[in-house]
Specification:
The structure holds two protein chains of two kinds.
Chain A: E1 5-13, E2 16-17, H1 32-42, E3 47-51, H2 59-70, E4 77-80, H3 86-94, E5 99-102, H4 104-108, H5 111-120, E6 125-133, E7 144-148, E8 153-158, H6 159-169, E9 173-178, H7 190-198, E10 204-207, H8 213-221, E11 227-230, H9 232-235, H10 241-250
Parallel strand pairs in A: 1-3, 1-11, 3-4, 4-5, 5-6, 6-9, 9-10, 10-11
Antiparallel strand pairs in A: 1-2, 6-7, 7-8
Helix pairs in contact in A: 1-2, 8-10
Chain B: E1 2-5, H1 12-21, E2 26-29, H2 32-36, E3 40-43, H3 49-59, H4 61-70, E4 75-78, H5 80-83, E5 88-89, E6 94-95, E7 102-106, H6 109-113, H7 115-129, H8 134-149, E8 157-162, E9 164-165, E10 180-185, E11 187-191, E12 197-203, E13 205-213, E14 216-219, H9 227-239
Parallel strand pairs in B: 1-2, 1-3, 3-4, 4-14, 5-7
Antiparallel strand pairs in B: 5-6, 7-11, 8-10, 9-12, 12-13, 13-14
Helix pairs in contact in B: 7-8
Classes of the chains: A alpha/beta, B alpha/beta.
């Protein structure tokens, strides 16, 4: 039986992991390659890297990070942030990423999903969605709207319709981020996750709001998510991957056990 | 030298990186002569079997692989590489290499209809045969019940799943019952002869995820993305005597 996936997410700016990451042991606290290795050994099932480098000219720094990560870990990882063209996708995949995630660029130009899927296979293309609850209204029948620019720009696009369109265009997976829940540590947006997951046939990764292992258990059962993204709860050492997986297993959730 | 076959199915560098990490040299090539004269051959791949076969025929790689199969050179197929060794694939009705009798078929909606039922029987099997603790078995029951509530079997089968070894093989030496492997696929091989099946995996239905014959071995999962157990099988292959 398929295991539920636990996926740490790393924000990378100009080749360094951002935020004041605090690890114990001797792990260099800001190097994404060392962090990748740390999470690989700790039992992460997959990793997500978001390139938040402001300047498009400095993309080569990220490509170098991707290449070094690929030489260091042997689990799948995806790269998102600033992916605008087929060439951007190709560069990331050739450097060794398993998947590439498109978000704003896909909203502005949905064809990038189908072009990417055709060129590299559906399984390579992750549709990243940033979503806010706005209430049911004209044009937004689900009540959830797609936003970009970190939640500042409303696109007048219904989240459920966009998820289904993304799937039809060839996305192989959806990474569903609730802007409302993001950073709260109060748990994932359950209604949104269930709504999207129940109405697409591709896997859904829940993102935003994870603060403790119970939140992951909720979203992986009642939320119908296939995988859960985590960030600060492990970056700051509050929990380890092992803590989380032990808890999930106690709850009867199928996870990949970590060899000790 | 280990030859990694380039037939336009991508993901080659990941396999080369994993082989290099294990301390072995490899070369990526689409040259049939180099393939036919290799010490070991790996043919990885993602994407469609039909497209892969088209490239192989165009470049003469299909003949080279049949030749290496006849001469007993160790061969390792990964993912699509595990599908093209069958006689045919339902994916675009592609004619394949035919090194192992049987075909490649797709996870279907029909499979998903029966998914809840087969999950339960799989769990019951695991109780009677499992050496796990009682609590672990109970976990597997409750998980199956969860799966009954979500009726749709998502395709592709993407993520980590277990491997039930049904026949010993040198390449599976050291693999533990709890080890899991990373899958991304919508199609799977269905060998006619159960003697060609070494491992099975459960996803709605139970399918052959590790197959082989003579010096050909193939996994439906991605060895290069399956952490330490994947690297172990890859290392076993690099050491496999023909």
């Amino acid at each position: 039986m398929l295991s539920k996936r636990i996926i740490p997410c790393l924000d990378v700016r100009e080749g360094r992991t951002t935020k004041g990451i605090k690890f114990e042991n001797n792990v260099d606290i800001g190097d994404p390659v060392e962090m990748a290795r740390f999470y690989y050994e700790a039992g992460a099932d997959e990793l997500v890297f978001y390139d938040i480098t402001a300047s498009h000219e400095k993309r080569n720094i990220m490509i170098d990070v991707v290449r070094r990560v690929a030489e260091t870990i042997f689990i799948p990882f995806s790269v998102g942030g600033g992916i605008r063209t087929l060439e951007d996708m190709r560069a990331v995949l050739l450097a060794g990423a398993e998947k590439v995630s498109v978000n704003s660029a896909a909203v502005k130009n949905p064809a990038i999903i189908s072009e990417g899927a055709k060129a590299f296979g559906n399984q390579c293309v992750v549709l990243g969605m940033d979503v806010k609850y706005v209430g049911e209204k004209k044009g937004i029948p689900s009540g959830y709207e797609i936003v970009i620019n970190g939640g500042r720009t409303y696109m007048g696009l219904d989240a459920l319709e966009w998820a289904q369109k993304g799937q039809n265009l060839g996305a192989g997976e959806i990474c569903l981020n609730s802007i409302d829940a993001d950073g709260t540590k109060d748990g994932y947006e359950m209604n949104l996750t269930r709504l999207i997951s129940d109405n697409v046939t591709i896997p859904v990764i829940a993102s935003g709001g994870a603060g403790k292992p119970e939140h992951l258990a909720d979203v992986l059962t009642d939320g119908h998510a296939d995988a859960a993204l985590i960030a600060s709860m492990v970056h700051y050492g509050t929990y380890t991957i092992h803590d989380i997986k032990t808890y999930l297993e106690q709850q009867g959730i199928k996870i990949r056990k970590i060899a000790k | 030298m280990i030859v990694i076959v380039d037939y336009g199915a991508g993901n080659l560098t990941s396999v080369a990186r994993a082989v290099s990490y294990l301390g072995y040299d490899s070369v990526i090539t689409d040259d049939p002569e180099k393939i036919a004269s290799a010490e070991r051959v790996i043919f990885p791949g993602v994407g469609a079997a039909g497209a892969a076969m088209e490239v192989m025929r165009k470049k003469g790689i299909d003949h080279a692989l049949k030749q290496t199969f006849e001469s007993g050179i160790p061969m390792l197929g990964i993912c699509v590489g595990c599908q093209i060794i069958m006689e045919s694939s339902e994916e675009n009705n592609a004619l394949c290499l035919g090194l192992i009798p049987g075909k490649t078929t797709m996870f279907s909606a029909q499979n998903s209809m029966s998914s809840a039922q087969s999950s339960i029987s799989a769990s019951q099997n695991s109780i009677s045969t499992s050496q796990n603790s009682i609590s672990a078995s109970q976990n597997s029951i409750s998980t199956s019940q969860n799966s009954m509530t979500s009726s749709v079997l998502k395709v592709p089968h993407m993520g980590w799943n277990g491997l039930n070894i049904v026949q010993e093989h040198p390449l599976l030496n050291g693999i533990k019952p709890e080890d899991e492997f990373y899958f991304v696929h919508s199609y799977f091989p269905v060998p006619v002869d159960q003697g060609d099946v070494y491992g099975k995996t459960e996803y709605g239905i139970t399918f052959a995820s590790v197959i082989g014959r003579n010096h050909l071995f193939a996994t439906q999962f991605h060895l290069e993305k399956s952490g330490e157990p994947g690297l172990l099988i890859l290392k076993n292959f690099c050491l496999w005597e023909s």
